[in-house]
């Protein structure tokens, strides 16, 4: 089950499409969907989580808490909408594309992909691109 929660005034348009897409991402990795909670928030909210749980006093776009057991993918994914907006501008991509990249990123961590080392980061970026293509944008 995938759920979307909001700690800011942002809300996803067409949650059902996003839920279907994340399910497809998980299935494409031969994993089983458990409980995944997306929590959309602002910088301040996520900074407090970063300090409280990870002892990092820095802004970030995503923090994920992985509760995956075997192939059953579960966890809480906190996303700062403010960071996503700023990063979209910095990377010269649309907000929607950057948001989908970050949403896929969290789930990919649960599927076993890492991004701390350069070679792992390259694989993660490739997987993000692959999974973003599964989101069918209506023309």
Automatic annotation (TrEMBL):
Principal place of residence: cytoplasm
Protein localization: Cytoplasm
Co-factor(s): Zn(2+)
Top-level EC class: hydrolase
Keywords per UniProt: Cytoplasm, Endonuclease, Hydrolase, Metal-binding, Nuclease, Ribosome biogenesis, rRNA processing, Zinc
Keyword Cytoplasm: yes
Record EC number: 3.1.-.-
Binding positions for Zn(2+) per the UniProt entry: 105, 109, 115
Cofactor binding notes: Binds 1 zinc ion.
Coiled coil: none
Task of the protein: Single strand-specific metallo-endoribonuclease involved in late-stage 70S ribosome quality control and in maturation of the 3' terminus of the 16S rRNA.
Family named by the database record: Belongs to the endoribonuclease YbeY family.
HAMAP family listed in its UniProt record: Endoribonucl_YbeY (MF_00009)
Protein name per UniProt: Endoribonuclease YbeY
Species, as recorded: Flavobacterium suzhouense
């Amino acid at each position: 089950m995938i759920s979307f929660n909001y700690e800011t005034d942002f809300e996803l348009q067409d949650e059902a499409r996003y839920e279907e897409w994340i399910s497809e991402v998980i299935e494409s990795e031969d994993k089983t969907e458990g409980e995944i909670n997306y929590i959309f928030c602002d910088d301040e909210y996520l900074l407090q989580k970063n300090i409280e749980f990870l002892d990092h006093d820095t802004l970030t776009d995503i923090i994920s808490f992985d509760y995956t057991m075997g192939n059953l993918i579960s966890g809480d994914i906190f996303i700062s909408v403010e960071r996503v907006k700023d990063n979209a501008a910095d990377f010269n991509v649309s907000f929607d594309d950057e948001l989908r990249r970050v949403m896929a990123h969290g789930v990919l961590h649960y599927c076993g992909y890492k991004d701390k080392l350069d070679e792992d980061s390259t694989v993660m970026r490739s997987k993000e691109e692959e999974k973003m293509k599964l989101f069918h944008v209506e023309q």
